[in-house]
Amino acid sequence: MGNEIKKIDTKAIERAVEQIIAAFGEDVEREGLKGTPRRVANMYTELLSGMFEQPQKYVESLFTEDYDEIVLLRNIPFFSMCEHHLMPFIGTANVAYLPAGVVLGVSKLARIVDTFAHRLQLQERLTNQIADFLMSSVKPRGAAVVLEASHSCMTIRGIKKPGSVMVTSALRGIFIRDPRSRSEVLSLMNNDRK
Ligand SMILES: [Zn+2]
Known about the structure:
Layout: H1 10-23, H2 31-34, H3 36-47, E1 62-64, E2 71-82, E3 87-98, E4 102-104, H4 106-117, E5 120-121, H5 123-138, E6 142-151, H6 152-155, E7 166-173, H7 174-177, H8 179-189
Parallel strand pairs: 2-5
Antiparallel strand pairs: 1-4, 2-3, 3-6, 6-7
Bound molecules: zinc ion.
């Protein structure tokens, strides 16, 4: 990967957006459209801010703690960008792990979700990346990640099914091996839904 660009090329986005507007048959100099390439470039830069960010910084300080029950952060709002359509998918994440001697600050779980979400993504990959990152960096006994999201590429275009929600899950470690741990974490995640 050595020579990859290390940040988003906003000028190139501006030029490309200008071409898209022209391809619509529109006047790129029209008042309402004049600033649009720049606005869109800034928007993508913001929405894809995780592209060149590494979540390692969020696990630099772990805390030794003799807590051997599940830690779960539930209903973390997130948005991400479907790489097939460059349209957002928006939803909530439930992220859990079973510590093995160390815990991480709770806000860090949300930051890890954001870092991976703010990239060109597929929901399936995003789910796996969060779980795998937790396993490799925090080395817990297990990790469980469930994402639920609504994909604008299928709610407002294509098959047009507003309200449909895609659910993906990634289980690691003890949550795969031990059915009791698995059902415990999944029922904790579902606790607020009657
Ligand atoms: Zn899509």
